[in-house]
From TrEMBL:
Residues 204-258 form the HAMP domain. The chain crosses the membrane at residues 21-44. It catalyses: ATP + protein L-histidine = ADP + protein N-phospho-L-histidine. InterPro entries: HAMP_dom, HATPase_C_sf, HATPase_dom, His_kinase_dom, HisK_dim/P_dom, HisK_dim/P_sf, Sig_transdc_His_kin-like_C, TCS_sensor_his_kinase. Pfam families: HAMP, HATPase_c, HisKA. This is histidine kinase. It comes from Actinacidiphila bryophytorum. Residues 273-489 form the Histidine kinase domain. Its EC number is 2.7.13.3. The lineage of its organism: Bacteria, Bacillati, Actinomycetota, Actinomycetes, Kitasatosporales. Keywords: Coiled coil, Kinase, Membrane, Phosphoprotein, Transferase, Transmembrane, Transmembrane helix, Two-component regulatory system. Residues 239-266 form a coiled coil. GO terms for molecular function: phosphorelay sensor kinase activity. Gene3D superfamilies: 1.10.287.130, 6.10.340.10, Histidine kinase-like ATPase, C-terminal domain. It is found in: Cell membrane.
Amino acid sequence: MTRRRLLPRPKTLRARLTLANVAFVALGLLATAAFSVMATYMVLGSEIDNTLRDSQRSVSSAPVTSRGLQQLCTLAGILQDGKDGGLSFAKAFKQDLFVVLDSDGRNSSVCENSGGANSRIREDLGSALDDPAALARSGKAVNVRADGTDYRVVVTRLSDGSMVVQGMRYSGLEHAIHKLLVWESAAGLALLGLLAVGSLTAARRRLSPLETMVETASAIAEGDLSRRIATARHGSSEVRQLSTALNAMLQQIETALTESERATAQLRHFLADASHELRTPLASVQGYLQLYEKGMLDADDKERALHRVSAEAKRMSRLVDELLALARLEERPALDFQPVDVCALVRDAAADLAAQQPGRPQTLRLPADGRAAYALGDEAGLRQVVGNLLSNVRVHTPPDAPLVIEVDGADTAVRLRIADSGPGLDPRDASRAFDRFFRADPERAPDTGGAGLGMAIVQAVVQAHHGTVTLDTAPGRGLTVLITLPAAGAPAAGAEPTAPAAAPKREPAAASTNGLALE
């Protein structure tokens, strides 16, 4: 069975904070009021008791009897004229009640008309005071009710055995306490009202940034990923820190979603390009095999068909190998970083190019005195980088276009610069040079046999070596590729520095006979 609440629970944070503040202050005011009422009651009651005891001591110390009191009352009545003369004797003792009892505790006619007590009060006192003699002996003050009025009384025994009852009204004390309660209640309610209004206003002002955050979150959920939380003027430091943290998180989320969309688009584009690259050779192989199976080829055609099937199979094999190489590089494998002599790699690649194109002028600019330039990396990967770059020069530039290869070794980095004198690229093609399956001249693809993955592999390998690769090109100005790699003695991010191996002894450089010039 569910429990029902007596009062509905506030739903908004502003209302809950306001209710909590008002409740806490109300408890504090209630405790303060209770304490003040008790203190006032004790102080005023103590004052009444002190007044009664002073009067009690005055009566008990005076050698007076009931007969003497009667004479004093008579004298007070003669001296006091007016209708209130009967109270003159009681006023003389600063009392509201002055009653004389005999030795047995019964009402006496002494000062009957001068003690401020009528017959009703005397009767009520007789019934209220069970043992006045015991009170006279103890000297304590007690509360009694006579004729509908509360009194604080003390009893004093005279020398002849009679007793005097002196009392003061408690109505003044009760009236003072009542007024105090009224004023405290009014002030407390006014204070709680002001607190409720002020707390609600302050909460609305301080929590307004949270409403802005809710609006921003709703806008982002509707697709506005660029929406951010504005800086709150009235927010606290915690709210500003929360806004800053949420903006940073939203920026990361937007970046991640953008990158995810870009990666998804690249993946779709990659799958389409890979399918297109594989579809053409597969269609050729399938067509030649169907012709061969149906016996539609003579001996010469069969030989040409087998040659084409073999060429297309090699093309597909090369494409698959390049795709596997890119996939392995994207998985960031743990490469075996060792000191690699970039000059040696350049010499070998330049010699291979000179063997394939003897008429191409080549200029090698290597460190002076035959010194080696050691980079920290994987030799097979770096050799593939140099080979791909020179292969692009061989395929995409005229055979007689000059080529300059420069290696510059320093303490922290090794720079490899390859500049050709080919047709170059326009800015749009240059920005896509490292995209997979990109070809600046797609019409020449069947002639070159390339799949457009060479530069993508170059970038992936260089990035795996914690280096950079940049292009400098323009139409008719050739293409310059600049690769920067960490030196063997320089620390690289994600790799432990390795001391360079001892450089092998080299013979002085000499010019080759295949158009290769060493500087």
